[in-house]
Design goal:
The complex is a heterodimer of chains A (about 110) and B (about 160). By secondary structure, chain A is an alpha+beta fold. Chain A contains five helices and three strands; from the N terminus they run H-H-E-H-H-E-E-H. By secondary structure, chain B is mainly α. The termini of chain B are far apart. Classes of the chains: A alpha+beta (about 110), B mainly alpha (about 160).
């Protein structure tokens, strides 16, 4: 019962932040929408709230930058976009991930035929 | 309306208490992010109901889970930092390589110049005939290798 939770937490660690980066790769994303989108991916996140510390970490690392924009209704919206460093971090992850996944698939026997 | 504000404040207070272990600036940042999220979602509900406000908070998740995620930043053994350091490190390493190359080449040029000057100076002062100082100099090193080639060659790289 505890093991599956621990496993998914361990698998998420180090990969989720790159999923977040990938979502804002093409265009800037409204923070609340981004969190709503990812929060619905139950294999990736436990809850929407846990994404905010992650986003804060990405801001501190300089991988994402945010812009406040006026909203037609309601409070100003915070938009997230990738910085050049964020783009290169995502590129680096893609290369690492592909090699990592292929090796795990080969050894564990989970690769597609 | 006021009751719903209390629900929100209770939630934020619970996160605040659970995240007591993280630096104040980061805790405030987290609480600001969460309250902005809640405010944005509440603004989407024209006549908000208690169920809807509770649903916003439920989707945010257990305050202790949110705090636990923020606590991870305290752990220096994060998966992200090594990758984060790399771009900077590459630039730093490149700078060091260039600096070393520049320093070494400067030293080499200086050594060659000193050698050339010394040779020119000693050549001009010791002998007037150009062929005379040149021939003994060539003869001396060629004399040494035939006498003991195997023993003579290893010490030469080690002394340089």
């Amino acid at each position: 019962m505890d093991v599956p939770g621990t496993l998914s937490t361990a698998l998420r660690r180090g990969t989720l932040e790159f999923c977040v980066l990938a979502l804002m790769e093409q265009e800037e994303q409204y923070g609340v929408e981004l969190v709503r989108h990812l929060g619905a991916e139950r294999t990736l996140t436990t809850s929407e709230g846990t994404l905010y510390p992650l986003l804060a970490r990405l801001r501190r690392q300089g991988w994402v930058e945010t812009t406040w924009r006026e909203s037609p209704a309601g409070p100003p919206r915070r938009y997230y976009a990738l910085t050049p460093t964020g783009h290169s971090a995502l590129r680096h992850f893609r290369a690492e991930w592909t090699a990592f996944r292929d090796t795990v698939d080969r050894i564990v026997g989970t690769g597609l035929k | 309306m006021n009751t719903y504000d209390d629900l929100v404040n209770d939630y934020l207070r619970a996160v605040e208490q659970a995240s007591a272990g993280i630096p104040a600036s980061r805790r405030e940042e987290l609480l600001a992010d969460l309250s902005q999220h809640i405010a944005a979602k509440r603004a989407e509900l024209s006549p908000e109901t208690e169920v809807e406000v509770r649903s916003i908070l439920e989707l945010l998740g257990d305050p202790s889970d949110v705090a636990a995620e923020a606590m991870l930043d305290n752990d220096p053994a994060l998966p992200a930092p090594p990758i984060q350091i790399q771009p900077g490190k590459k630039l730093g390493a490149l700078a060091w390589v260039l600096l070393t190359v520049a320093a070494v080449s400067t030293l080499c040029v200086a050594a060659v110049l000193v050698g050339v000057f010394f040779f020119a100076w000693s050549g001009s002062s010791s002998g007037d005939v150009p062929a005379a100082p040149g021939s003994p100099q060539i003869q001396e090193p060629t004399m040494q290798p035939p006498s003991s080639p195997s023993t003579q060659s290893p010490p030469t790289p080690s002394t340089t």
